[in-house]
Specification:
mainly alpha, about 75% helix
Length: about 270
């Protein structure tokens, strides 16, 4: 009887070992298959991105190209592209081109599309409508793109009437209703109100991490580094929540406010 029990125990142990090994092999095989699939996806993505950056017209019709066209129109809506807007747009070009195999070629394409589109407001509706089609069913991407356009207009502290008209036209074509549009602006403004409406020169220097005695060249370099560090990243924002874009906008506006106060004091 004892011998029989030993054989039963041994059979159970062998079955458990077999079950564990079988599952481990399956898990390893599954992980291996996922790694291979991910690598193939990366290769395919690079191929698609490379193909896109080889044609300006193809890029212009892509969701990124259409978005850049709208960025250009919003930036120029009030008649000029100011220093901070230009800087944010330049950093955005870097963020987008970084995901492409040929970064320099892509950045050149982005600049060309921006330059060609910034003086055209008559086709805003058509461009926004094309972007809406390109985005498919993604409500999240629509909101993220709209948020970036709003923060670009808000970066100087307020949205002008011309900017507001243009933004509302874009929102409508992206199927973002008035309540959603106003909610996005309200969220940005609430966070930005946490910044002091008026700060002293000493406080401005503290925000930028510079001394009052520093020359403007040094201050400008520091300012640009901070804007690059805290700017809203349209690529990274796709993996983050709504608060990311709002916080980044508020921080960028605070940095810009401090810089403007120091600039004025240095005149």
């Amino acid at each position: 009887m004892r011998q029989f029990r030993k054989w039963i125990y041994l059979a159970i142990v062998l079955f458990i070992i077999y079950f564990i090994l079988d599952n481990i092999i399956n898990i390893i095989a599954t992980i291996f298959a996922l790694v291979i699939a991910f690598k193939l996806y990366q290769v395919y993505s690079k191929y698609k991105l490379g193909k896109l950056s080889n044609s300006k017209e193809l890029f212009r019709k892509s969701e990124l190209g259409l978005f850049i066209s709208l960025v250009a129109k919003v930036a120029k809506a009030d008649g000029r592209v100011d220093e901070l807007e230009a800087q944010l747009i330049g950093i955005m070009f870097d963020d987008i081109s970084a995901i492409f195999p040929d970064k320099d070629k892509t950045r050149t394409l982005l600049k060309e599309i921006f330059s060609e589109e910034k003086n055209r407001l008559d086709d805003t509706k058509d461009v926004a409508k094309a972007l809406n089609t390109a985005l498919g069913r993604s409500k999240l991407k629509r909101k993220q793109f709209m948020s970036f356009l709003i923060q670009l207009a808000l970066v100087d502290g307020h949205i002008s009437s011309d900017e507001n008209i243009l933004l509302q036209e874009i929102a409508f074509e992206l199927n973002i209703n008035s309540a959603e549009y106003n909610a996005i602006i309200s969220s940005f403004e609430t966070r930005m109100q946490n910044n002091k409406p008026s700060i002293s020169l000493a406080e401005a220097c503290k925000i930028l991490g510079v001394n009052e005695s520093d020359d403007m060249s040094t201050i400008k370099k520091t300012y640009r580094k901070l804007v690059r560090k805290y700017h809203p990243d349209i690529i990274k924002s796709q993996d983050k929540g709504d608060a990311y874009m709002e916080e980044a906008t508020a921080k960028t506006q605070e940095i810009n406010q401090a810089y403007e106060i120091i600039k004025e004091a240095k005149k």
